[in-house]
Amino acid sequence: MWLSRQLLLLAVLAVLAVWAAADSHPIDWITAGSAPHEYEFGEAADRGTEELGTAYIKSLASQHTGFGTLLKNLSAQSYAGKRVVLSGLMRTSDAGRAQMWLRVDGADGKPLAFDNMGKRPVMGTTAWTRYEIALDVPANAKNIAFGFLLFGGGTVWGDRFSLELMVNHVQ
User: Fold this and answer.
1) Which run of H or of E encompasses 43?
2) How far is residue 86's CA from residue 73's CA, in Å, rounded to a whole number?
3) What is the DSSP string of 17-57?
4) Does some domain include residue 157?
5) Is 63 a domain residue?
6) Confidence at residue 54, expressed as pLDDT on a 0 to 100 scale
């Protein structure tokens, strides 16, 4: 059952990624989700760090039918056959469920690997905290997508996302 929900969420993310709203998301991020209209996406003037802009997702609805996410896509070519680690900072205010996520797709667009912190969400109000997700990137991978999302109420801020090769990893 858990795997079915994760695959459904993954399919929704893949389909809805094309819903990018050109004037309502932070620079270099794509807005998507199962209910992006229930969220505000932006770049905070009060930055979490001095080097990068802090992106945020804020709930606009009193009742939620889904989630909103900010995401980025990149070619898997440099990472194929290796293990990668996505790291980033998040902080929350009254968050229902905030989650960082990482997905590796094949040539057909179907997911080959996926982790969305489903069993370790960030909830409530939290300070800036660094999170990590590690996944193997199969040799036939074509795309890597990553980001952070918000289910339910509250606000989540994200900053300093980085995708790096895991050192000394043997597949």
Assistant:
1) strand 39-44
2) 13
3) GGG--TTSS-TT-EEESS-GGGEEEEEESS-SSSSSPEEEE
4) yes
5) yes
6) 85
**Which stretch of DSSP H or E encloses residue 14?**
helix 2-16
SS3 91: strand
Average pLDDT estimate for 65-87: 95
Whether the CA torsion 143, 144, 148, 152 is positive or negative: it is positive
Distances (CA, A) of 130 to 15, 113, 122, 159: 29, 22, 11, 9
Structure tokens belonging to residue 52 = 């990068």
Residue 171: inside a domain: no
Rounded (10°) CA dihedral 103, 106, 111, 115? -30
Read off the tokens for 157: 């801020």
Domain-embedded: residue 170? no
Q: Tokens for 29?
A: 């991020």
Domains: count for the chain: 1
Radius of gyration of the chain (CA): 15
Among 101, 86, 158, 96, smallest CA distance to 129 is for: 158
Looking at residues 77-82, what average pLDDT do you find? 95
User: What is the domain extent for residue 40?
Assistant: 2-165
Residue 159, both tokens: 């900053």
Query: The domain that contains 116 carries what CATH number?
Result: 2.60.120.260
